[in-house]
Amino acid sequence: MEASLEVLRESFKNGRTRSYEWRIKQLSSLIQFIHDKENTIFEALYQDLGKHPVEIFRDEVGIVLKSANNALSSLHKWMAPKKKPLPLLFFPAKGEVLSEPFGLVLIISSWNFPLSLSLDPLIGAISAGNTAVLKPSEYAPVFSSFLVATLPLYLDDKAIKVVEGGADVSEQLLQYKWDKIFFTGSPRVARIVSSAAAKHLTPVTLELGGKCPAIFDYSSVHSNMKVAAKRIVGGKWGPCAGQACIGIDYVLVEDKFASELIESLKRILKKFYGENSKNSTSIARIVNDKNVERISNLLKDPKVAASIVHGGSMDKEKLFIEPTILLNPPLYADIMTEEIFGPLLPIITLNKIEESIEFINARPKPLALYAFTGDETLKKRILYETSSGSVTFNDTMVQFVCDSLPFGGVGQSGSGSYHGKYSFDTFSHEKAVMQRSFLIELEPRYPPWNDFKLKFIRLAYRYDYFGLALLLLGLKK
């Protein structure tokens, strides 16, 4: 491992990755990789997660192609120094911000979207001019092996390496000094990553998760009930059978409207996945036995099981858990205190929808907050009285595909952001550059001190140039 990392460090040291041409070539090769291996990617992700090719293209292949093409078309602009205004006091002078790569970066990705969560951050690292080590998740073993074997055939292997292995490999990687670490996964592992990074004062971006709520304001959206129900079902069960960090974790609705919402969700579930969702090819499978057991344990509490109003069946051998709706499970139960990360959807009822603000604020900050409402007052309260990585009104998941918006969490749901230009920024250091002339010297900034110099500095920090002129002319005391 040390020998491999030394090759990458030397590549960065000799400037191999800094040129615009190198970055463009790697991004173009990454796009070619996706085009050449699309069918192989479909097969690998089907074997690992049971995903349909349409879902794979929507959530993975399309995401990576979009991001890489956006970086290709924008890179020249991103790399250009940004001119910044300077106080007139320093005239003649000029200031700019220059984005420079960190150096050797480590990317540890997650298993639920193995392609996009691996290559989307890598696009940012390449665009910024870094060398990189990518560690895909061992929980998607077919895809991980494919990536290790194939990606080096397209990218510069003296600057980008893919490392396969389990937790022991991740642990080994974290012992080395990195210039940046980008981690996608659980808060539990994020604490280990942060602790290891702290030993070297390495900056870290953490893309985590949390219990993402959806507020359903029936009174203002009931005329669009069918569309809203589709978007809730799509935002819960559509991405990887609920195994998504930005998927809906629970829904808040007024008590008197809960039954109508549930019936609408049932109808959409039947439309999407048929009478028996177990036979549907449109819903992914749970990633492994361990996670099937973890999700099934959430239903073992008798009071939780009693709250099931739809679904609840499972086939552990086939890694299948039916889309399940629960009405008011106990708030103390694990299903309401831990991130579900699976196809279970609790519906929590309130007396008034405005109570959702307090409900959400009583819990850790989510990665995403969804609200179905046309009430502008409620929208403002959600925006300014809650904290979350993002807020999306009247839809779900779509914020993830918008490169103009930062994607990232806050508090327990993560730190830092990426996508589009934000990915470039995440893997760059913004270096301040100032250039001055020798023509004019500001003598009052030097000792020995006196009252005149104090007055001068007071006026200078207020940018009171008229006052400074009067002071210098002796017309101001």
Task: Give a description of the structure.
- The chain has 477 residues and is an alpha/beta fold.
- It folds into 2 domains: 2-208 and 418-430, Aldehyde Dehydrogenase, Chain A, domain 1 (3-Layer(aba) Sandwich), CATH 3.40.605.10; 213-408, Aldehyde Dehydrogenase, Chain A, domain 2, CATH 3.40.309.
- It is 42% helix and 17% strand.
- The protein contains 19 helices and 18 strands.
- It has helices at 2-13, 20-36, 38-49, 53-79, 116-127, 141-150, 167-173, 187-198, 218-221, 225-236, 258-273, 289-297, 302-305, 334-337, 355-361, 376-385, 421-426, 451-461, 465-472, and strands at 82-84, 93-101, 104-108, 131-135, 160-162, 180-184, 204-207, 213-216, 250-254, 308-310, 314-315, 320-321, 324-327, 344-350, 369-372, 391-393, 414-415, 428-436.
- The strands form 4 sheets. Strands 10-13-14-9-8-15-16 form a 7-stranded mixed sheet, with helices on both faces.
- The longest helix is centred in the N-terminal third of the chain and has 27 residues, at 53-79.
- The mean pLDDT is 96.
Task: Give a short overview.
This is Aldehyde dehydrogenase. With 477 residues, this protein is α/β, with parallel strands linked by helices. The chain folds into 2 domains: 2-208 and 418-430, 3-Layer(aba) Sandwich (Aldehyde Dehydrogenase, Chain A, domain 1); 213-408, Aldehyde Dehydrogenase, Chain A, domain 2 (3-Layer(aba) Sandwich), CATH 3.40.309.
